[in-house]
Specification:
Number of strands: 0
Helix content: over 70%
Radius of gyration: 29 Å
Distance between the termini: 41 Å
Strand content: under 5%
Shape: elongated
Length: 303
């Protein structure tokens, strides 16, 4: 049986994951500086270590936070089902506490462990409203906070909690439906960002494989002609071969900057979260690195 995902523990581990990511990133930056300065001979190019540092900063935290966000989203998605079951139990004359305990025997996906914790607390003597508050603190999202506040106030007011729960469940379903529609629309923009990034990489590759070699040949021909005619070669120095590596570096740097920027924008457009953007930036960095440094940079990762 798969181990249950402990949401509260996972949230506490976020800082640990971030700290490890930062430490690894700083180490890679230090290695890149040493290689660039010629202090030590490392297997990869110095700039590659800076790229890997960017991946270390973005990837682990982005994917870990994304996993937590996905779990929270699944909890919110199943919450209307739980509210509906509690409401049905309440219509048979059960108190809110008894209704929660009865409903806790159901299956609600990632929400199930949280519901059983709430039911166990009630069985240990914790008031139902207090157990609901503790549940809201564990999940800690605006939607759950609003729902639990409404339920607690309805229970304290002594009204018909079952009707309130039914209305809240319906309202949450509507919110999720609106979110799904928005996500479908944003997926189109996400695809556009990835396609635009791919096109940018393709343009860089074309420039690198066709324009720069022709530029190098033209510079050599002009220099040779200038030497034969006795004219100074300073007029054609800008297109000498010695500038080709600098231009390639600028190409690679621009791709990596685009990866980070486009990824952040993609994540914010998709889910409105910076951490989601970090995940996309990590993916785009990998794509850019493979395209420019492995496929077209002559880099041997095994060497």
């Amino acid at each position: 049986m798969a181990k249950e995902f402990d949401l509260q523990k996972a949230k506490k581990n976020v800082k640990t994951v971030l700290g490890i990511s930062v430490a690894v990133g700083i180490l890679l930056i230090f290695m890149g500086i040493l290689d660039a300065a010629g202090a030590v001979a490392l297997p990869l190019d110095g700039f590659d270590y800076f790229i890997f540092a960017g991946m270390a900063f973005l990837g682990p935290y982005g994917f870990y936070q994304s996993k937590i966000d996905k779990t929270v989203e699944e909890i919110e998605r199943r919450l209307p089902d739980f509210l509906r079951d509690v409401s049905e139990a309440g219509r048979f004359g059960m108190t809110l506490a008894d209704a929660i305990i009865v409903a806790s025997s159901g299956r609600y996906g990632k929400l199930t462990p949280e519901i059983r914790k709430m039911a166990a607390q009630i069985q240990w003597g914790v008031p139902a409203t207090q157990a609901i508050k503790l549940f809201a603190e564990r999940v800690n999202t605006p939607l759950v906070e609003r729902i639990t506040t409404i339920v607690i106030k309805a229970s304290d007011a002594g009204g018909n909690v079952a009707d309130v729960l039914s209305m809240v469940a319906h309202s949450v379903k509507e919110v999720h439906h609106a979110q799904d529609e928005q996500r479908i629309e944003m997926t189109t923009y996400l695809a556009v960002i990835y396609i635009a990034y791919m096109v940018f990489i393709a343009t860089i590759i074309i420039l690198d494989t066709t324009f720069l070699p022709q530029m190098e040949k033209a510079g050599a021909a002009l220099q040779e002609g200038a030497a034969k005619s006795g004219i100074s070669g300073g007029a054609v120095a800008l297109i000498q071969a010695q500038y080709i590596p600098e231009i390639k570096f600028i190409f690679t740097l621009s791709v990596m900057i685009h990866a980070i920027g486009d990824g952040i924008v993609a994540g914010i457009l998709q889910k409105g979260k910076f951490s989601e953007g970090m995940k996309h930036s990590f993916i785009m960095l990998i794509i850019g690195f493979i395209a420019l440094r492995v496929m077209f940079g002559g880099l041997n990762l095994m060497g």
